[in-house]
Amino acid sequence: MSLPETMRALVQLHDGYSGTAEGPAIDTLEPYLEFREVPVPQVGKGQALIKVHLAAVNPSDLHFIKGEYGQPRVKDRPAGFEAVGEVVAGDTPFVGQRVSFFAAHSGCWADYALTDAAGLVPCRPDLAEADAAGQLVNPLTAMAMFDIAREGDVKSFILNAAGSQLGKLLIGLGRDHDCAPIAVVRRTEQADALKELGAAEVLVTSDDDFMDKAKGIMRAMKPRVLLDAVGDQHTADLFFAMPNRARWVNYGKLSTEPPKLSQMGQLIFQHKRIEGFWLTRWMQEVDQATIGKTIAAVQERFVSSAWTTDVAAVVPLGEAMDKLPAATKIQDGKVFIKP
Amino acid sequence: MSLPETMRALVQLHDGYSGTAEGPAIDTLEPYLEFREVPVPQVGKGQALIKVHLAAVNPSDLHFIKGEYGQPRVKDRPAGFEAVGEVVAGDTPFVGQRVSFFAAHSGCWADYALTDAAGLVPCRPDLAEADAAGQLVNPLTAMAMFDIAREGDVKSFILNAAGSQLGKLLIGLGRDHDCAPIAVVRRTEQADALKELGAAEVLVTSDDDFMDKAKGIMRAMKPRVLLDAVGDQHTADLFFAMPNRARWVNYGKLSTEPPKLSQMGQLIFQHKRIEGFWLTRWMQEVDQATIGKTIAAVQERFVSSAWTTDVAAVVPLGEAMDKLPAATKIQDGKVFIKP
């Protein structure tokens, strides 16, 4: 297959970290990215070049382009962590096949992306394109965190930002594995759809009786783990209303508010703790067999409709500078970029 | 030995928890305790009655009488957790011997205290009375937390309230075991004495360049654990200036300020976590052999002068209502009550 010399890409304008902590909201891409014609990446030893079919837009991408993620930006390199596409070159038996991948070396918001050959994830033929484009970041995070939530055979867990794609995946796992999801959302309108999906309870932070209701539910259901993508004061208040040995597991920061620890004595006397979850670290810590088994389970869940991907928007690569910011503000669905 | 029918005691005026979070400072005992003549406790099965020689006054006692500790108050029962005395009755071979103890059933701010016979700690004859009166709460906490601080062969740790008796015990352990103590205090005047004692660095929170200096020390010494008895914003700021995988281990709440988590992303990307330490839980979790070995090491450290008890005041039981509040405000030393 003959490759072009150049490609279209959304290229980063900055190196390193910004030092800000604004969260993933974006109103414009201009400060961070530029749509540009750049050389197609050269494939090095142990690498694979993938022609991108469909790329995911995750909160981590938005944190990253703003310089607020756990790894530094690289100026003039395309952004975009996760996609599905066809392997077109590289030191791998998967050339010609459809794979999902993390773009380890050159980002996937581009016609072509470069990654490690060892990290390619072949897709079942019956896996839909949108499911395949987002089968790593959210689904693996959901699987790994759900295992934390049900440790010790606990029968319920709390999650906030429950209307997000990741939230819905977690609710599906709880529903299917007898570990009742207690969903926390900002807007009453989200409640019915999440109950339909399998949430045992839905708490709405804007309700006047939010904390009273939360306390009653905690007493009845005794969740042990709070999976938190928000990190605001509501989250802290929920944590302090949880029973003994509660774990506040933060994996995102949708809020810019720094929560206050109003009842630190609970860390001492109730054995509670506050920690973080990062998929990148999880993947470094578990063995390859576990990752392989988890990915197979992820694909099976999508193909069997135990999970579905709610698509909010598919933005053409060439129009992303204009249209992506508005698309990221669509509630309760996932955004993709299509080269 | 014939026992009197009544005894003098500082008796609690309230049941349960207060719901407040004021911290251990007390200006007066009247809202919480009354000096009163009460019956000498009856010894039940598996219990021991001890004639109190000298009782410790720990921050946990002050939290407790205010209704802010991890266990509920019992109205009309004497306060006081820890003391040394002579066993005068009970189902134990230690009758007639000097023991240290936690007063599990009737508090030790009294002429007699009642506890479980299984929890008596015989004292070496060469152990000084003040060391014996305070050999459990602070020394066992110091030993257990120091083991956390040096996990993984880490070569330094941070502690605040470093001028407290517990702080000094921790500094001594770090000095003697090649794990450099970074001491945090509020007042410049405390620095020299703590360096003398073995602190590798002393950070003074009231200094203008406190955080700059702290950051430099973190980079150079790479402590992994912050042992925290304060729980204020300085503590949170120190935690967020620590290197990857830092643990904030809170064991007390001298400050009433609720710290803000300004950089939650560090929990995710830097694998940091916030937790508590409670001696009561530690004693439930470790085996008896570990506790026995630890207590032997504690007594050896006091007898060999590796540790010393700085006595701020010894308040007679009959004068405690008047004199104890002022005594607890004396800096950098330990207060005792003498029946």
From TrEMBL, chains A, B:
Residues 27-337 form the Enoyl reductase (ER) domain. It comes from the Bacteria. This is 2-haloacrylate reductase. The keyword Glycoprotein does not apply. SUPFAM superfamilies: GroES-like, NAD(P)-binding Rossmann-fold domains. Its EC number is 1.3.1.103. Gene3D superfamilies: Medium-chain alcohol dehydrogenases, catalytic domain, NAD(P)-binding Rossmann-like Domain. It comes from Pontivivens insulae. Keywords: NADP, Oxidoreductase. One of its GO terms (molecular function) is 2-chloroacrylate reductase activity. The keyword Oxidoreductase applies.
